[in-house]
Amino acid sequence: MKRRDFLHGIGMAGGACLLSQLGALRAFAAGGDGYKALVCIFLNGGNDSNNTIVPLDATNYSRYAQARGVLALPKENLAGMALPDGSIPYGLHPSLDGLVPVWEAGQLAVLFNVGMLQRPLTVAEYKAGTDSSVQIPGLFSHADQVRQWQSSSAGASGTTGWGGRLMDAIGSSSGGMPGLISVAGASRFGMGVKSEAIVVPTSGLLALSGDDGSAASRARLAAWAQLHAIDKDSQLVTAAQDVSGFTLEKRGVINEALSTPAPVTKAAFAGLGTSIAKQLAVASKLIEHRYSHGTRRQVFYASLGGFDTHASQLGKQSSLLRELGAALSAFNTAINGMGAGAEVTTFTHSEFSRTLRANTSGGTDHAWGGHHFIMGGAVQGRAFHGTFPDLRLKGPDDADWLGRWVPTTSVDQYAATLARWFGVAAPQLSAVLPNLTNFTQPTLAMMRD
Fold it and tell me: What separation in angstroms does the CA of 388 have from each of 49, 90, 114?
């Protein structure tokens, strides 16, 4: 029986636990003593980027409106994203207008046309399809693309995610708060070779099954703790003790932070009760108490679902983006209010964008490259990074005839840029992102040092 199989078979209320495993990657200590956190927000279902960011110049807006048909957003309704020189080349979906102040403060950036690639790829190469390196298994499949985005691996079916491998490379803290935390359930993103995210609830405290505070449950916990003094004379015993021991150790730290007042977070999220707002509020609360636990590097995972808009997209996406925009704005307010603006970088993921051409049900279908937000004080903000696609159907960026953009930036490059800011040394990037060596420009100029 493999050790990981044993670990995954151990159930516990509240979610997955950080674990240790033999044959791990060599840890690389983060430089400096400052705190840094990455917060991933996964937009499950495939967010339609074409209506999230819309070009405002006459030529490109005309192409957009012609191809979108009934789904085209009126130009006058879009929230303008002005550059420092005063030009306004793109507009935000009107439901995201709450992010305009974040943009104008220089704490929000957009990365264009990101998607899963094994190597740089042209439309002609993709259409020819003669080279196996251009093929992305399950390209338009939710399950495959979620796995690939979270693992940053297009060609392999590994069990780890790039968030987990990132923490493997940095090296987890020996005490205090866990370095990997999910507020959205278990995911591949937070699973490393020797690290795994602990799942923290968005309401209440982290609980153990059977622990009701009674004398009997306290006695069971005491007995459980005593078991950890027993010699670990086998991999099986070691695995079990690692899991349960970590739970006992970290539960108290997490619950103390969750139960301690966090006034900055409370004020910023006042009146917000959506799922994504609750998730980011928990992350914010734990970050607000960062000086009490001493953990210098943390990775958080959150998610918002419902973006598989095959029908009635206008109303559905509008509602979802309104939730996202309000939660992001509140999170940014909280992080700045606690003096962590330059220490926390928030970014979006989604398995794919959607076709520019609408279908007959007032929706869109699965596509490929999409646009993403990066937010925080360390971001080269109020700027657009990457290459915006040509919005002509069957045009130079279209993989077919529906407006499926062949990505011009890979998930690997996106992740590597965040990893370098987080503290992963350049020689360690290939351990986190194995396909990165296929790209001559491994990182992007979207983060400040």
Answer: 11, 10, 10
pLDDT digits (tens, 9 = 90+) for 316-363: 999 999 999 999 999 999 999 999 999 999 999 999 999 999 999 999
Q: 94 in a domain, yes or no?
A: yes
- Spatial contact of 284 and 346, defined as CB atoms under 8 Å apart: no
Distance CA(156)–CA(140), nearest Å, equals 16
Q: Which two tokens stand for residue 116?
A: 């899963």
Indicate the SS3 state at residue 242.
helix
Task: Please give the tally of structural domains in the chain.
Answer: 1
Domain range for 398: 3-210+231-438
Task: Return d(Cα 206, Cα 215) in angstroms, integer.
Answer: 19
- Report d(CA 119, CA 71) in Å as an integer: 33
Distance between CA 288 and CA 243 in Å, rounded? 27
Domain membership of residue 226 (yes or no) is: no
Distances (CA, A) of 449 to 40, 154, 344, 381, 435: 20, 29, 13, 13, 24
User: Does residue 223 lie in a domain region?
Assistant: no
3-state secondary structure at position 43: strand
Structure tokens at 96: 């995201």
Strands (E), 330-420: 344-349, 370-375, 383-385, 409-410
Instruction: Give the E-state strand segments of 107-199 in sequence order.
Output: 108-115, 180-182, 198-199
DSSP conformation class of 177: S
Q: What is the helix (H) or strand (E) element at residue 257, kind and residue range?
A: helix 235-259
The Cα-based distances of 112 to 69, 299, 389, 406, 411 in angstroms read 22, 23, 8, 11, 11
Q: Is 17 within the bounds of a domain?
A: yes
Single pTM value for the model:
0.87
Contact status, residue 409 vs residue 112, Cβ threshold 8 Å: yes
What is the distance in angstroms between the CA of the first residue and the CA of the last residue of the chain? 45
- Look at residue 227 in the predicted model and tell me its pLDDT: 57
Q: What is the pLDDT of residues 51-110, one digit of tens each?
A: 999 999 999 999 999 999 999 999 999 999 999 999 999 999 999 999 999 999 999 999
363, 390, 360, 401: which is closest to 51 by C-alpha? 363
